[in-house]
């Protein structure tokens, strides 16, 4: 009698549940890897008012503490699943006070090897200035392309008050984002947020954000709607979207 041994290959599930935490949580993976997190958050309908209007939210940052670059701000009564990725081994999660959120059951994270996505230092745009070459030399080329499709082209800002512009870029690992003001580089990091103060002189200023997409430059010009503080607060409280750009 002939016996044939057929090997059974089982998929190894490397993802880990996001641990329960009250206000802050540091997630770290092995050296040489970056954090890939998939999550959804929800809040009981028994709590009054919309969570986004109450500024109850989750922040995700690219590093090991609160000052690290911002990867996203999330809120909503019952959000869809989001995916965010760090640029290194650390990711910082922070709930606002009195948040009353919980992660949904399948929320998880894992560490992915940076060299598995084909990241490397690169030198693009041979006709660029020396400053621009330096900027893009520090970018990472990833096999998972950066995507600017979620970046709103028109954004609201406050006149004569601290505001933010948002460039919510998806990529793996987290791509570097270059912010430009009238064509000049003003920020080069993994942060999706650029802070500014709109004065009378700033009314005609042009802003854009750009990323490298597997060797090709992607750019999004951002138009601003300048409002007074009172007017914008009313508009802002009406927004109960799953993911919110906080000012």
UniProtKB/TrEMBL annotation:
<dbReference type="InterPro" id="IPR013783">
    <property type="entry name" value="Ig-like_fold"/>
</dbReference>
<dbReference type="InterPro" id="IPR007110">
    <property type="entry name" value="Ig-like_dom"/>
</dbReference>
<protein>
    <submittedName>
        <fullName>Hemicentin-1</fullName>
    </submittedName>
</protein>
<dbReference type="InterPro" id="IPR035914">
    <property type="entry name" value="Sperma_CUB_dom_sf"/>
</dbReference>
<feature type="domain" description="Ig-like">
    <location>
        <begin position="145"/>
        <end position="223"/>
    </location>
</feature>
<dbReference type="Pfam" id="PF00431">
    <property type="entry name" value="CUB"/>
</dbReference>
<dbReference type="InterPro" id="IPR036179">
    <property type="entry name" value="Ig-like_dom_sf"/>
</dbReference>
<dbReference type="Pfam" id="PF13895">
    <property type="entry name" value="Ig_2"/>
</dbReference>
<feature type="domain" description="CUB">
    <location>
        <begin position="1"/>
        <end position="121"/>
    </location>
</feature>
<keyword id="KW-1015">Disulfide bond</keyword>
<dbReference type="InterPro" id="IPR000859">
    <property type="entry name" value="CUB_dom"/>
</dbReference>
């Amino acid at each position: 009698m002939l016996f044939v041994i057929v090997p059974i290959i089982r998929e190894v599930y490397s993802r880990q549940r996001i641990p329960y935490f009250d206000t802050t949580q540091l997630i770290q993976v092995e050296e040489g890897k970056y954090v890939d997190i998939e999550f959804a958050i929800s809040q009981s309908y028994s709590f009054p008012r919309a969570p986004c209007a109450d500024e109850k939210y989750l922040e995700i940052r690219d590093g090991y503490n609160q000052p690290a670059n911002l990867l996203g701000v999330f809120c909503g009564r019952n959000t869809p699943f989001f995916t965010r990725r760090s640029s290194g081994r650390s990711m910082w999660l922070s709930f606002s006070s009195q948040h009353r959120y919980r992660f949904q059951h399948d929320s998880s994270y894992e560490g992915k090897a940076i060299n598995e996505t084909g990241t490397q230092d690169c030198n693009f745009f041979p006709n660029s200035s020396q400053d621009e070459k330096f900027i893009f030399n520090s970018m990472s080329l990833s096999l998972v392309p950066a995507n600017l499709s979620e970046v709103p082209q028109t954004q609201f800002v406050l006149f004569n008050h601290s505001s933010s512009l948002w460039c919510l870029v998806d990529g793996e690992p987290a791509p570097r984002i270059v912010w430009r003001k009238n064509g000049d580089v003003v920020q080069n990091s993994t942060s999706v947020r650029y802070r500014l103060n709109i004065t009378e002189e700033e009314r005609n200023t042009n802003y854009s954000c750009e990323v490298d997409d597997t060797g090709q430059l992607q750019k999004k010009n951002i138009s601003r709607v300048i409002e007074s503080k009172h007017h914008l607060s009313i508009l802002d409280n009406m927004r109960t979207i799953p993911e919110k750009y906080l000012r």
